[in-house]
From TrEMBL:
Domain Solute-binding protein family 3/N-terminal: 25-246
Signal peptide residues on this chain, from the entry's feature table: 1-21
Record-linked SUPFAM superfamilies: Periplasmic binding protein-like II
UniProt keyword Signal present: yes
This protein's UniProt keywords: Signal
Protein's UniProt name: Polar amino acid transport system substrate-binding protein
Pfam families named in the record: SBP_bac_3
Keyword flag Signal: yes
Length: 246
């Protein structure tokens, strides 16, 4: 009997220890196809703005950080499954998403950007009429296009990189995505920057936040403390300059 009780007690202690360890690590889900916010280096490691921001926040609040590569169509489910306790993947804060999840304070602002060929005459929403427009599925680019109220040939893709590839190969006239990603392809990425330009940005501002499950508001509060700290000590500014040139 004593051995049984002791075994049970040890099992409880192990479980508690595991939970404590998990609470000490920000396990971030990211879809690393969104440069320069999150993407893969030559060794398949996740790098980018979001990666460095999470690492800096974790350091400020006495936690470790770990990133996991999760496809966009499964990224929100990763919170429920326990694969991650935070999503750090350039997620726009929307009223619909706030009904299901807890968001951190905004850590970045974006507009939707319209990317076209260098020699394109497209300059405003009305010019998109009849054009083949590509977007990543499940992103706010679709809502931005809906608001433009222009008749287009909309084509959706699993990854934004595939959208830009099709445009480079002449199968699309336009790509719409977050402006940091648009600028990365149009001004920095080899094989693309000499072929494309940002035609215009949408007027609406989108606020980007880290995402948590509804039962993890305490962790969100801790992350907000860390975010405030790196803004005050200059670490956020240094990371912006590194990845975004701001």
């Amino acid at each position: 009997m004593f051995r049984t009780v002791l075994t049970s007690l040890l099992a409880v202690l192990v479980l508690c220890g595991s939970a404590f360890a998990a609470e000490k690590t920000l396990i971030a889900a990211a879809n690393p196809t969104w440069p320069p916010m999150e993407f893969l280096d030559e060794n398949k490691n996740i790098i980018g703005y979001d990666r460095d921001i999470i690492a800096a926040i974790a350091e400020e609040i006495g936690m470790k950080s770990e990133f996991r590569n999760i496809a966009w169509d499964g990224i929100f489910a990763s919170l429920e499954s326990g694969q991650a306790n935070v999503i750090a993947s350039c997620v726009t804060i929307t009223d619909k998403r706030k009904k299901a999840y807890v968001f951190s304070d905004p850590y970045y602002e974006v507009h939707q950007a319209v990317v076209v060929a260098k020699d394109s005459a497209i300059k405003k929403p009305e010019d998109l009429k009849g054009k083949k427009v590509g977007v990543q599925i499940g992103t706010t680019a679709i809502e931005a296009l809906r608001k433009m109220n222009v008749d287009i040939d909309l084509r959706t893709y699993d990854e934004v990189g595939l959208v830009f590839e099709d445009m480079r190969n002449g199968r699309l006239d336009v790509v719409v995505c977050d402006d940091p990603v648009a600028r990365y392809y149009a001004s920095r990425k080899e094989g693309y920057k000499d072929l494309m330009k940002v035609a215009f940005l949408t007027e609406d501002v989108e606020y980007i936040g880290f995402v948590f499950s509804k039962d993890n508001a305490e962790l969100a509060a801790q992350v907000n403390k860390g975010l405030k700290a790196i803004r005050e000590n200059g670490k956020e500014k240094a990371i912006r300059n590194k990845w975004l040139g701001e």
